[in-house]
Design brief:
It is built from twelve helices and twelve strands. It is of the alpha/beta class. The strands form three sheets. Strands 2-1-3-4-5-11 form a six-stranded parallel beta sheet, sandwiched between helices. It has a four-stranded parallel beta sheet with strand order 7-6-8-9, with helices on both faces. The chain has three domains: 40 residues, 434 Repressor (Amino-terminal Domain) (Orthogonal Bundle); 129 residues, 3-Layer(aba) Sandwich (Rossmann fold); 121 residues, Response regulator (Rossmann fold), CATH 3.40.50.
Length: 325
């Protein structure tokens, strides 16, 4: 094939393994020629000759959560551009299962993206000292991690609610082992304290729509008129409960989600905090591919700030909401 195209064999190899090193038109010519003759690269043979597995691993805690599919798609797109495949695994919110997956997958891939890890920090650091791990949404010192930081967006959300006259704020949190949950709760509490707002926190450990729906009446029962939810799934569940109780959104209660995963699938459309998941995933993958011969990744802490997106679920605080009898 190389002689037919008038290029070196190494150019053909790079078109499949490191297309980013070649001109786009050269890559297109090689791929078109390969397709014409039915050529498919043998990743196992490549791994034997180069020591590179030709794939990365991706571990998420709950593949059914709508936050993760866009991240998975971004990982696949960026990995494909680097000539890599993606092996996907779901830890099902189980720290022990997550550790088993890391140990089993690490020798088979060039590195692992571990998203929203549920492992203790000490153990995660130990694993990062043995394997090529890039963490997303888990802040562990001494590791390579990429963080989606909601702090400034949550502060903007609380300022917005205060401007609308809300003085009693509730935070509805998700999985207890989630770094994002702890970070978001802390940010809501700090901003509420700074603004002199009354703050109450509730937990929904299962992190499900049903659990949030069951909690909805409790959340507003003590007079909260502004609610920040850990993610859009919980916000959606709360809205479902409010609808059944005939509590109007945003007339009686304003609600803001997080992640921008279900924002346009609710009525009214959900106000939320949005993140650039694609760029964050790209940064994590770059960390895995930048130094392919290193046994572990260098220490790094890369953050991407969220942005408040206002839609239809926030409005002026009502003096006598319908749910207060």
């Amino acid at each position: 094939m190389a002689s037919q195209l008038g290029v070196a064999p190494s150019t053909v190899s790079r078109a499949f393994t490191r297309p980013d090193l070649l001109r786009p038109d050269t890559v297109d010519r090689v791929l078109a020629a390969a397709k014409a003759v039915g050529y498919v690269p043998n990743n196992n043979a490549r791994a034997l000759s180069t020591g590179r597995a030709g794939a990365i691993g991706l571990i998420v805690p709950d593949i059914a959560n709508p936050f993760f599919p866009p991240l998975i798609r971004a990982a696949q797109n960026h990995a494909s551009a680097a000539g890599l495949s993606v092996f996907l695994a779901d830890s099902d919110e189980d720290a022990e299962r997550e550790e088993r997956l890391i140990i089993a997958m690490a020798p088979q891939v060039e590195g692992l993206l571990v998203v929203s890890s549920r492992l203790p920090s000490t153990r995660l650091r130990e694993l990062a000292e043995r394997y090529r791990l890039a963490l997303i949404n888990r802040d562990v010192a001494g590791t390579f991690r990429v963080l989606l930081d909601a702090t400034s967006a949550i502060r903007a959300a609380l300022n917005h609610l205060e401007d609308l006259g809300h003085t009693r704020i509730a935070y509805v949190g998700g999985p207890e082992r989630s770094w994002s949950n702890r970070q978001r709760r802390g940010a809501v509490e700090a901003a509420a304290r700074q603004l002199g707002l009354h703050f109450t926190s509730y937990g929904v450990p299962p992190g499900t729509y049903e659990a949030a729906k069951a909690l909805s009446r409790t959340v507003v029962g003590k007079g909260a008129t502004g609610v920040i939810a850990f993610d859009d799934v919980l916000a959606h569940g709360l809205m479902g409960g409010f609808a059944e109780e005939r509590i109007d959104v945003p007339g009686d209660v304003s609600i803001i989600g997080c992640d921008d995963a279900l924002a346009t699938q609710t009525f009214p459309a959900l106000s939320t905090i949005s993140f650039n998941v694609a760029d964050a995933t790209s940064a994590a993958l770059h960390g895995l591919t930048e130094h392919p011969n290193d046994a572990t990744l260098p220490t790094a802490r890369i953050t991407f700030d969220g942005a408040l997106v206002l839609r239809g679920t926030t409005g002026p605080a009502r003096e006598h909401p319908a749910f207060i009898k």
